[in-house]
Description:
By secondary structure, this protein is α/β, with parallel strands linked by helices. The chain has a single domain (4-207), classed as 4-Layer Sandwich (Metallo-beta-lactamase, Chain A), CATH 3.60.15.10. The protein has helices spanning 38-49, 63-66, 86-90, 171-182, 201-207, and strands at 4-11, 16-23, 28-32, 52-57, 78-81, 112-113, 119-122, 125-131, 140-144, 149-153, 156-157, 160-161, 190-193, 199-200. The strands form three sheets. The protein has a six-stranded mixed β-sheet with strand order 1-2-3-4-5-6, covered by helices on one side. The N and C termini lie far apart (36 Å). 42% of the residues are buried. The chain binds zinc ion.
Amino acid sequence: MSDLQLQKFxxxxxxxxxxxxxxxxxxxxxxxxxxxxxxxxxxxxxxxRGLRLSALWLTHGHWDHMAGAAELTSGEMTVLGxxxxxxxxxxxxxxxxxxxxxxxxxxxxxxxxxxxxxxxELFGRDVEVLHVPGHCPGNVAFHVPSExxxxxxxxxxxxxxxxxxLPGGDFATLExxxxxxxxxxxxxxxxxxxxxPDTTVEREMATNPFVPA
Length: 213
Ligand SMILES: [Zn+2]
């Protein structure tokens, strides 16, 4: 099995992270989240490496994580999401009052709904889906144990947590999600959040001021 490659991009008006993952010498790539400008940003990388984008894994349905999805997705592409964000995927303009003025939103067709503890496959590696609601109802994390990676969306950030004042947000729910589903991961696991720098389970358990371990 060839090594996995991971490239991070910070995109859009509020600096939202997207992560492109592919297997060295492979022909396919997957993208975790699709902020605005995702397509033009990853297109040269796909072209240079001869990769086809085969799947989009959405951590949640907030506009800044999926405003670039509609132009990226083609008929045969798998789009993963959690059903508790159905309203956000299908009716994204419901969040327009929280977005940048003048932005346009297109609905996203999720082709595969995922739930807590679902198993996925990433170029031959196991992936576990972790439901971590609280920032919004349908936030999921994608844990890749072989690589020590966990893509967490807006559940937790380096030294912070996702805001809980948006519709569907709830601090107690988020705190429980983090403690039950993220702080139980191996301590050295890299957390790849939807905003800002990467961190680790160990570091957040020791220093996160909002959700102490
Ligand atoms: Zn969000």
